[in-house]
């Protein structure tokens, strides 16, 4: 119930202004966001790489309905990739892109053009790009843009949300050699007409999608903090003869850092999703919605403890 309220608040302009204006909010946001500037993002990436972790960096922002803002976001990614170049990350470096931040709500062609610019800038520094998945109304458009991007940049990946009824089919379509799929449970408030509701149903759907990806020939990116999903991934890797380098785990910045480091210490590729920028509100509220304990953390910080 609290999670549903927080997801609703993530779309509310009134709540956004109230939360953003609160002086202590920044202290709490810092737990989940690497900073506002490119320099802070770069420093966070450097720290994570020193700890043997890979990264996927997200320039925060979503739902742009302004062509200039879409262009500014694409340019921000290009600046970011140039700033990361001296770190020589190779495939340990990646950026995550929300197509709605580069014009998808205005025009698919605009989003495709900006995504192409970002893919070209990433390729120039040896990094990859993964498309985040947003609410269910964007899935067909995102997968269409992915197909076009992969003609020139075949390593471009995409997130698939296990909670959507359609996702088993999408995983089947994307399980061929060369494809990179980040499997997530799903973070948006979706209606019962398109998505499983409730934790148990979503978890079961996650396992079904995971099985399809692990049995396939692509590169599964298992994005979860759930111990059970991680254990099931290891069982499926055994069953389908996968080795440690042909799939990876992914987790969010600031969440279960102990687990991130222990999996990396055991030889797994663990990629940390590193969000940065000043448009942190939607991202931050979805993280609160995922876990009531985070709300308690937020309230304690507002009380100065
Ligand atoms: P849960 O069942 O939510 O959590 C399992 C356990 O993990 C919890 O019991 C808790 O111990 C820990 N945990 C989970 N969340 C938190 C938290 N916020 N704070 C502290 N502990 C926590 N969603 C999309 O819809 N589109 C995307 O493109 C997308 N990209 C993502 C990229 C990455 C790398 C990751 C890790 C997640 C992404 N998500 C995305 C979010 C995802 O859909 C889930 O909302 C989120 O990962 C929580 O689900 P979980 O699998 O960790 O399992």
UniProtKB/TrEMBL annotation:
<feature type="binding site">
    <location>
        <position position="98"/>
    </location>
    <ligand>
        <name>substrate</name>
    </ligand>
</feature>
<feature type="binding site">
    <location>
        <position position="133"/>
    </location>
    <ligand>
        <name>FAD</name>
    </ligand>
</feature>
<dbReference type="InterPro" id="IPR015659">
    <property type="entry name" value="Proline_oxidase"/>
</dbReference>
<dbReference type="GO" id="GO:0004657">
    <property type="term" value="F:proline dehydrogenase activity"/>
</dbReference>
<feature type="binding site">
    <location>
        <position position="286"/>
    </location>
    <ligand>
        <name>substrate</name>
    </ligand>
</feature>
<dbReference type="GO" id="GO:0000166">
    <property type="term" value="F:nucleotide binding"/>
</dbReference>
<feature type="binding site">
    <location>
        <begin position="185"/>
        <end position="187"/>
    </location>
    <ligand>
        <name>FAD</name>
    </ligand>
</feature>
<keyword id="KW-0560">Oxidoreductase</keyword>
<dbReference type="GO" id="GO:0010133">
    <property type="term" value="P:L-proline catabolic process to L-glutamate"/>
</dbReference>
<feature type="binding site">
    <location>
        <begin position="224"/>
        <end position="225"/>
    </location>
    <ligand>
        <name>FAD</name>
    </ligand>
</feature>
<dbReference type="Pfam" id="PF01619">
    <property type="entry name" value="Pro_dh"/>
</dbReference>
<keyword id="KW-0547">Nucleotide-binding</keyword>
<dbReference type="InterPro" id="IPR029041">
    <property type="entry name" value="FAD-linked_oxidoreductase-like"/>
</dbReference>
<keyword id="KW-0285">Flavoprotein</keyword>
<comment type="pathway">
    <text>Amino-acid degradation; L-proline degradation into L-glutamate; L-glutamate from L-proline: step 1/2.</text>
</comment>
<feature type="binding site">
    <location>
        <position position="287"/>
    </location>
    <ligand>
        <name>substrate</name>
    </ligand>
</feature>
<keyword id="KW-0642">Proline metabolism</keyword>
<feature type="domain" description="Proline dehydrogenase">
    <location>
        <begin position="43"/>
        <end position="297"/>
    </location>
</feature>
<keyword id="KW-0274">FAD</keyword>
<feature type="binding site">
    <location>
        <position position="161"/>
    </location>
    <ligand>
        <name>FAD</name>
    </ligand>
</feature>
<dbReference type="InterPro" id="IPR008219">
    <property type="entry name" value="PRODH_bac_arc"/>
</dbReference>
<dbReference type="InterPro" id="IPR002872">
    <property type="entry name" value="Proline_DH_dom"/>
</dbReference>
<protein>
    <recommendedName>
        <fullName>proline dehydrogenase</fullName>
        <ecNumber>1.5.5.2</ecNumber>
    </recommendedName>
</protein>
